[in-house]
UniProtKB/TrEMBL annotation:
It comes from the Bacteria. It comes from Croceicoccus mobilis. Residues 15-128 form the Nucleotidyl transferase domain. Pfam families: NTP_transferase (PF00483). Keywords: Nucleotidyltransferase, Transferase. This is Nucleotidyltransferase. One of its GO terms (molecular function) is nucleotidyltransferase activity. CDD domains: PC_cytidylyltransferase. PANTHER family: N-ACETYLMURAMATE ALPHA-1-PHOSPHATE URIDYLYLTRANSFERASE (PTHR43584:SF8), NUCLEOTIDYL TRANSFERASE (PTHR43584). InterPro entries: GlmU-like, NTP_transferase_dom, Nucleotide-diphossugar_trans.
Amino acid sequence: MRPLPLLRAAMIEHAILLSAGQGSRLLPLTAERPKCLIDFSGRTLIEWQIEMLARGGVKKIDIVTGFKTDEVEHAISQINDPRVEITCHFNPFFKVADNLGSCWIVREEMKGDFLILNGDTLISEDIVKKVLAGEDGPDGPWPIAVTVDVKPAYDSDDMKVLREPDGRLLHIGKTLTAEETNSESIGFLAFRGEGAELFREAVRTKMRERDGVEHWYLKVIDTLAPTGKVGTCSIEGMHWAEVDFLTDIETATALTDTWN
């Protein structure tokens, strides 16, 4: 009997943007302006994110806001793009919680397949399409897929990843050693089928713990890795930028200049 063909990835039309933070490492640039409203080549960071997601076919975007939420919500209200429906969700404890708290705020929106994009990551249209196409695990597209890139060496601020040759994720975290690291997360994930429910329940469980608000949501992904349901999607050679430090502004602007 011939083996059954692997199921192909279904189109994901829903994305969640985690844009609650101030971006304190970008001070004084972000003293009165949230990171997501920094201008790059004539558009704000969040406008570029929405544009690239829309080009990839995303039709619904939920944005978690926090610092200067009124300004962010106003900026979003000025976007008149028929391709996407955008809704903002305020995270009232953004000052004391890490981004796991932002995931908890929109946990009820995590139904069906969806994407999560960190609020400080600029990604190209090609990356969106690559992630939406999906990469196969043993039974079809990975229920949870972490988008990863590779480079010669990784520093203490990188979200480091250890993965198997077949793409299965073994560990993810900033404290992995050089020997334990063979790629890095760019802050862009896809959740399909049972992966959405696995993640939503794990977020709920972690946030009930005493120190839940102190964690990144990728700590939850690390705890799910042993299930064998978490894989990776490599975008090696493709173009993206993370905006964390003032030194990143020039690099990110050079990238967005090519998108105009």
